[in-house]
Design goal:
The complex is a heterodimer of chains A (about 700) and B (about 120). Helix content of chain A is about 40%, strand content about 20%. Chain A has about 700 residues and is an alpha+beta fold. In chain A, helix 1 (about 10-35) runs antiparallel to helix 2, helix 3 runs antiparallel to helix 4 and helix 3 runs parallel beside helix 5. Chain B is about 50% helix and about 25% strand. Chain B has a 5-stranded parallel sheet, sandwiched between helices. In chain B, strand 3, helix 3 and strand 4 form a beta-alpha-beta unit. The longest helix of chain B is centred in the N-terminal third of the chain and has 13 residues, at about 10-25. The model of chain B has no long low-confidence stretch (mean pLDDT about 90). Classes of the chains: A alpha+beta (about 700), B alpha/beta (about 120). The interface between A and B is large, with 56 and 52 residues. Chain A: GO terms for molecular function: ATP binding; phosphorelay sensor kinase activity. Chain A: One of its GO terms (cellular component) is cytoplasm. Chain A: Its EC number is 2.7.13.3.
Chain lengths: ~700, ~120
Amino acid sequence: MVKVSGRNTNEPMLDMFIFETSQLIEQLEQSILSSEKSSCYTPTAINEIFRIMHTIKGSSAMMIFNNISTLAHHIEDLFYFLREEKPNNIDCSTLSDLVLEGVDFIKIEMEKIKNGDEADGEVSQLIERIKGYLSILKRTNISTGPVKDPEKVDTKGQRYYISQDKAKTSIYANAFKAVIYFEEGCEMENIRAYTIIHNLKDITEQIFYMPEDIIDNDDSVEIIRREGFKVYIKTDYSYEEMHKFFMQAIFLKDLELIQLENVDELKQFSTVKEAVVQKNPIKVPSLHEPDKRKKEASDKEINSTSMHQSIISVSVPKLDKLMDLVGEMVIAEAMVIQNPDLKGLELDNFQKAARQLNKITSDIQDMVMSIRMVPLSTTFHKMHRIVRDMCKKLDKEVQLEIIGEETEVDKNIIEHISDPLMHLVRNAIDHGIESTEDREMRGKSPSGRITLEAKNAGSDVLIILKDDGKGLSREKILMKAREQGLLYRSEDDMSDKEVLNLILIPGFSTKDGISEFSGRGVGMDVVTRNIEAVGGSVSVDSILNNGTTITLKIPLTLAIIDGMNIRVGNSCYTLPTISIKESFRPKEGDIITDPDGNEMIMVRGQCYSILRLHEVYKIKNSSTSIFNGIIIMVEHDDKTLCIFADELLGQQQVVVKALPKYIQNFKKIKGLAGCTLLGDGSISLILDITGLINN
Amino acid sequence: MKKVLIIDDAAFMRMSIKMMLEKNGFEVVGEAEDGIEGVKKYKKLKPDIVTMDITMPTMTGLEALINIKEFDPQAKIVMVSAMGQENMVREAIMQGANTFIVKPFKEEHIVEILNKILAI
């Protein structure tokens, strides 16, 4: 049995089921949405949906997820009708709603299955509605006649293989009666019976059978189950041969084979079919569970000669583990190559070998990264559904355009950006895009436009969400911020960009009313928090009445960064190399101190503030004279800061580890992104440039 | 070991059948995800027996069956069907499929069927 005995024994199958079904569901959703958009279901689309439902039905039945299987079965039925009858009065939007509801149900159940819960969703109500919809369709399409299988061939004339030629009748020496019982649960007993009849044709053409309407009448299945399938034949075959023949039947549970003494008796069958020949039974062998010994041939070693498999699915935890290990290896490599014991030694061959090792580790690292990369397309295409649902509810018209969906990001990051993205799209439709009338009044096209774009920018990926709605008003934001006491600077000092970024602060909401979708004031800051959690940043740009652009900048990957190690006193810190612009020793005349005591440095006519790390982290034994140390200029989001440290230690790839929970819980330390292990085994704190700059 | 070719568009079904069969001493020599590929692989791999899904894109199981039977009238083919496909199954039998199995099925059933068909 596939499942039942417990899912643990069938992990790979369950994984495959989840993987494939999720994919199919996505494909299905796309198909429905694009059909709805073009407001018609093309035969291709109908066929595709039918096929997907058919596959899901089969797979989930194998895994005994009966509610999914039943639902899929009914949707399959519905699309079968659509495919065969091509009714022309389909209400596209009702149909889409119904199927999407089914899609949602399966999604929820899949979530449960993924989490190891019982897939126990109640589906009967939805099924009733699907049935109802189908019966309405059938009723309104009565003119086209009742549903008919196209494959259904007229079976009359195939039922009896009795030769008209009477003379031939006498040729056959023997007559048999066979009563065949099939194993319970083998399904489609009538077709099984048909198979036997079909095969009998090679032996004789004198065949009679009961029930005789095995194809057309579905009740025949019941009769066969209850009373067995009775066959009368005349043939030259011997009893043994006939017995062997019947024994070959698949799912045979029980066979009674009787040789009839009186050959002529058979003639009556065409007229008197029922009260037949219980007399003269010669031999009645009966068997149960045929060929039991064949089952013994099992339990051989599983031969995994999967010579044709080019793609395998790997569970994400395994990849995470691999990533961790590669991280450890990078550290271990540094520990060997930069081992303090080697200091001052002349080691040409060692260095050569070390370089080779270094090349291989970085190759492995790239490879592991690339394995973990997934295109954004799935995440992006989910937005179609949101746009659709929102537009329906809010009665707006919005076109969603997707660009660069093939851009790849680390799998873990994708999981973090899906929700924020959804939120942003909702915001854009709810708050951004105006109603059709408003848009026409302003001379815009009646249907709004949202563009979702992804592109690579160095070690980051930019995700840009652009709408052509009403944009953000500086005054409104300031007013709101004032009301909620979120302003900490004079309003006139703030640039437009700074004002716009106020909407990212917790507790900020410009929407007066709360709709079902957005505007609860917990919006943008959650987006910011999610994006920052993966080391990304959010920025807002907007032109009043022209639209809003929100840009998410997210790193390609989380785990390993190029870092510059710096020393402050006895402590070591790591800066992401990507943020470093330059480093230099300051000259005396460049340092300026403002009336508040803040230090600045003049570089090429530009003034930058200086941050002394030893002051921020209260480090002793470090050089306090700015001329003995080094200034490192870092940049993030067009903001620049000069960090003062004792010296640069060197560049190294570092594996980012989160700060231990007890430190995080104890105190939120500003400006730290995490920590890492150095080659000599000591710990370095990774500085969070954004945090430092915004401090 | 008897060589099996699995033709099914659902990766899950291919995997299920493969696992069931390999556990019972069959060698799955190939998998195909639609009829066209299936026919090609049949010609190349010459398996002892084929399990054939009925509903597949580009070329259905029925068409693939006919194609394979044309190439090799002795080909042993077991159709894998689902409830509600009675007519197509019957058609497949008429076209020379040896037998069929209805999803969901149990391991012992598919093994029994294959063994029986192979014994003919």
